[in-house]
Write a structure and sequence with these properties.
With 219 residues, the protein is an alpha+beta fold. It folds into two domains: 73 residues; 94 residues, Immunoglobulin-like. It is 19% helix and 37% strand. It has three helices and twelve strands, in the order ββββαααββββββββ. Strand 2 and strand 3 form a beta hairpin. The radius of gyration is 19 Å and the shape is globular. It starts with 10 loop residues before the first strand and ends with a strand.
Length: 219
């Protein structure tokens, strides 16, 4: 049986990159709110946020080891994003920057692609966090990208679902697929009696799945 409120130990890490110090915080919210949340701070301001729901793990077989592995993996990914230049003002460096090799460009490119295909997943995000409220219309603008290269993922299945507080069942409010640029616009009518529940944005592609959750305010 899962103990109520069980929480896995998280991490707080400072990462120096290009004369800047980024603080990365990753924590497990616990089985009552099964979300792993990572925040990146720079200069005291939050510059990035990532949430991953492991509600599916509670249904399939929760273990502390499995959740700890998810926490570790997400924390490492945030560090890779920083070191890879994802949050640099000028953006990440182009492919091949800094590579010195006797190999041909085709050989280097092939190795790079093979490595990415082995480890790359997907990431769903929204540019501005929404404020869902029961009984109101909400428009989401999800973007799905590969989580290592940041390239748009076309054809990813998008589902928006609402769940009442304390329930593991929900109602599907929207289904669709991302376009060529990895984007889709999703308009949903939030049920009036779902205040206090959660809204789940879920993306599924060939290389994995990702989701974001928000609490639904009462009307």
């Amino acid at each position: 049986m899962i103990q109520d409120g069980r929480v896995i130990t998280g991490y707080n890490t400072d990462i120096e990159h290009k004369d800047q110090v980024f603080h990365v915080q990753t924590e497990d919210r616990g089985v009552e709110n099964p979300v792993i949340e990572s925040l990146i701070y720079m200069g005291g301001k939050i510059i990035a946020q990532r949430q991953y729901s492991y509600a599916w793990l509670l249904r399939q077989g929760y273990t502390e080891e499995a959740v700890q592995e998810l926490v570790d993996s997400q924390h490492r990914k945030m560090g890779r994003d920083i070191r890879g230049g994802k949050y640099d003002p000028e953006g990440p460096p182009p492919f091949g920057a800094g590579i010195i090799s006797n190999r041909t460009f085709d050989e280097v490119a092939l190795e790079f692609i093979e490595e990415k295909l082995e480890t790359e997943g997907i990431e769903v995000s929204v540019e501005e966090p929404p404020a869902p409220r029961a009984g109101e219309l909400l428009v989401l603008e999800p973007m799905v990208t590969s989580d290592l290269t940041g390239r748009p993922v076309a054809g990813a299945a998008i589902t928006v679902q609402a769940r009442r507080a304390g329930s593991d069942r929900g109602v599907v409010l929207f289904e669709g697929k991302t376009g060529r640029k990895g984007h889709i616009s999703a308009g949903v009518d939030l049920p009036g009696d779902y205040g206090g529940g959660i809204l789940i944005l879920h993306a599924k592609g060939l290389n994995g799945e990702d989701s974001i959750e928000w609490e639904i305010a009462k009307s």
